[in-house]
Model the fold of this input.
Amino acid sequence: MLLRVLFPLACVAEIATSVALFVPLLGLGSAVRRLPARPDHPAVRRTARAGVRFAWAAATLLAVKLLAAGGMLLAGPSFAQRPLVDLLVLAVPVTLTALRTLPTLRRLAGRNEPVPAWSALARTRFALPARLLAVAGGATAVLGLAVPNRGVFAGTLTVFAAVAAIVAIDTEQRDRRMSGRPAGMRWPRAAGRLAAPVLLLVTAAGCGVTGVIGSRIPVAMNMGMHEPHGHAATASAAPPRSVTTLTGGPLDGPVHHVDLTAEEHPARLTGGATVDAWTFGGGLPGDPIRVRQGDVVEVTMANHLPATSTTIHWHGIDVPNAEDGVAGVTQDAVRPGGSFTYRFRAHQAGTFWYHSHEISHEQVSRGLFGLLVVDPAGGATADMDDAVLVHRWHTDRGEKLAFGADDGVRLRQVRPGNRVRLRVVNADNDTHQVEVTGATWRLAALDGQDLNAPGPLGDEVVPLGGGGRADVELTMPDRPVRLSLAGESGPAYVLSPDGRSTVDAAAPGPELDLMTYGRPAPTPFGLGGRFDRDETVDLDQGWWFHGGSFGFVWTMNGQVFPDVPMLTAREGDLVRVTFRHHGRFDHPMHLHGHRVLLLARDGEPARGSPLWLDTVLVRSGETVTVGFRADNPGIWMDHCHDLTHSAAGMTMHLAYEGVSTPFSVGTASGNLPE
Done:
């Protein structure tokens, strides 16, 4: 828990000091360079005193950076890569400045100290360390802001090494001029002032042009031919299979048919705010779908949006790959006026949801999502079974957090003694904390999977990342019960014996430790078992080029989509994936088409009920290890379900060997899944 609080603070401190440190270091280097040009001794002392003040400011920021590095090291050496690289870059010039420049600078700043000859103030031994330290400060500022990958590190250090060489030449030539020694080379005075800035400007302009052009979304890119992650792809002996053939075979038995219409439909929240919404069926959220386990689900989606293509992805349902609904990977996006029919068998009982996977960060935000519940084959077991979909709407009155369209308190009468099941779907990007006030309750399921022997809970809160689901079960008491989100003034769902009385939310208690909740049960594999594939995915952030522009991006192994190498697997492989979160903000990682078993968090194995998830919350500074059986062939997205993060680069794919796709992502096809 301490690390969860400390690591994000250390990240902020590390980035802030990387940028802020450049200012006093530049001031110190500039003061040292200007000393020989001061007109008189008082001016020399004033400049020296300014340099000393800059040095003290830099020392303070360096101390903060060291503390930040220590805090990040608590999560592991790889988590402190940025500050450790910065400190290595700064180490030599800091040491030389402390030994050669600062003692003289402090003497010059003294009131009664004699001022040496002007030529002594230009000596290379005195001036060069501080000027090189300013160059190193510029390098660490860039490294602190840019995405952390080897290419960026190498390019940045190469450019600033060239700047350091220019500064060294300029310092030596000034020393020679002022001491009367031969110049040794032709070096105009203007070169000392202009060479380094011109080099940096030309480099920045070149990087900008190549970055903007090179990062544009391709006209067409086939995800079945993308570069694999970590190792070369192994050719499959079997003939290639198209994703269009991966339909799950014949689908016999009862068919539950649903028609959904995607349309633009201004809608109103219960509090009166208006949403310029896109909906599946005209409501907020879209039409709910409720089927029974084993049913064949057939959904025909007609796109009546005026100028926007769309799809439907079945979040958490392990559908055959052809039915996954990802534009450019498993189908072409459905254009305005078109339609598409999805067919799959609902093998899994539980709480799920559906949403668009074409420009999903925008379309889901505007309302293209809905509830999907699969009841057990024997029927629902609760007397009262309802669901709330958490979502933050952009309205004419600003942002409004709501349960569906309810941004206030929803009341429902429930008879005391009734068994209640409340299904919470986080259709928002942010992580929310689910809390229950007024009754003892149990966390019955996560991500549609029932937990084994869940124990009674009181004031505990349950963290739920974007895309995740939590099922709450309780027996209705003779007093009101409130389901709400910790730390939020609204919305709330109140169950009341008389349908009128309510209850305020209690102060939130501790966060439920999901790693120890419930009772252990046998699983087909464990943390220490043998895996056919073992992958590590580093999650981070920074400023870089993406989608033809420069901005803040979210990275996987130092890259952004579409340049993130994909994971590969053979059908039947047992795969272990370790996520390491080096940055800030939560990342709910969602692998399509599979359930993963949460094996360990920060090296500690799971000790409670097995946690079979489709959306795994990875928090700042955490290392989370999951495993899954590659038993659903296809090409599957694996991305952060904070869809703003996914749209800004945090997307990769899992590709089965021998599977191809006829579809392409890009501007030509109009298939833009994120």
In short: The CA atoms of residues 329 and 662 lie 8 Å apart. Residues 229-235 have pLDDT under 50 and may be disordered. The longest strand covers residues 533-546.
